[in-house]
Amino acid sequence: MTLVLREADVRQVVDMDAVIGAVETSMRELGDGTAQNEPRRRAFAPGGLLNVMFATYPGGGYTGLKAYTIGGGKVRFLVSAFALDGSLHALIEADLMGAYRTGAASAVAAKALRPKSPVTVAIIGTGYQAHTQVLALSDIVLVMTTSSQPVLEADWVAPHALVIAAGSNFPNRVEIPAELVARARSVVVDQLATARLESGDLIQAHAAGSFDWERATELASVLTGKWQMPEEPGITLFESHGLAIWDLAAASVVLPAARAKGLGEEVAFFG
User: Fold this and answer.
1) How far is the C-alpha of 10 from the C-alpha of 100, rounded, in Å?
2) What burial letters (b/e) apply to 146-183, b meaning 16+ CB within 10 Å?
3) Which of 17, 59, 192, 219 has the fewest beta carbons under 10 Å from its own?
4) Count of structural domains within the chain
5) DSSP states of 58-94 as a string?
6) Residue 113 sits in which domain range?
7) Same domain, yes or no, for 207 and 254?
8) Are residues 117 and 76 in the same domain?
9) 247 φ, ψ to 5°?
10) Are residues 77 and 117 in the same domain?
């Protein structure tokens, strides 16, 4: 049987600390080659947009995909979670769950990239995902917008700050200026293949001659010890675009909790 969860079901059981732990575990699996993640693909249609992204997360017991549409003034998120034997385990309305996994990924990056936390936090962007970013993080400079122009200036950033840019996942979206990318001593991305397609900040900085892709390190490499922070890190930039493996990690938290509470609806698929 396939469990169908609505947003209201997810809201009852989603837990940020548990999602943070699952996202970190999934990224370690990605780093050691156990898990796989494919970048988001987009198909445009008159008045709408289809987005599809998929991954495997063996440690969580799932493979699966997230598909979402943008059109008619609405965004509709659906995660399909398959067990490792190929059976369809769950269909999840995934707006809230997606916000949690995005915040969780920022927390994982903050822990890995700035274990000695600074004492202040600055958040640029006050949409609904900003709430889950605050829930997951403290003492971090975080940018969470859909801007097509930089929303801060390079000289605003302290010399040893960690900057998390989590809103730009289109090539034409830019949250931070090329000058800040150039100043960053370390540039870490959630996944290089995804960043090359979606990171407007880095794509446009590269076009301006302020960034070379060889400077980018994947978060999974940081977590698995394949890359070490410089002793004097300077500005550290983390570019977060959103990975399907994070959705599976969040699902691995939500689904057992929902079943334990008897939430959702069981539906038979495929005979």
Assistant:
1) 11
2) ebeebbbebeebeeebbbbbbbbbbbebbbbbbebbbb
3) 17
4) 2
5) GGGTEEEEEEEEEETTEEEEEEEEEETTS-EEEEEE-
6) 105-239
7) no
8) no
9) -65, -40
10) no
Two tokens, residue 122 = 């600055």
Beta pairing, strands 74-83 & 122-124: unpaired
Residue whose pair of structure tokens reads 């050691």 in the numeric block: 32
**What pTM was estimated for this model as a whole?**
0.92
Q: What's the CA gap between 26 and 24, in Å, rounded?
A: 5
Question: CA dist 267 to 90, 256, 258, Å?
Answer: 9, 17, 15
Q: 221 and 248: one domain?
A: no
- CATH code, domain with 10: 3.30.1780.10
Residue 49: φ, ψ to 5°: -150, 130
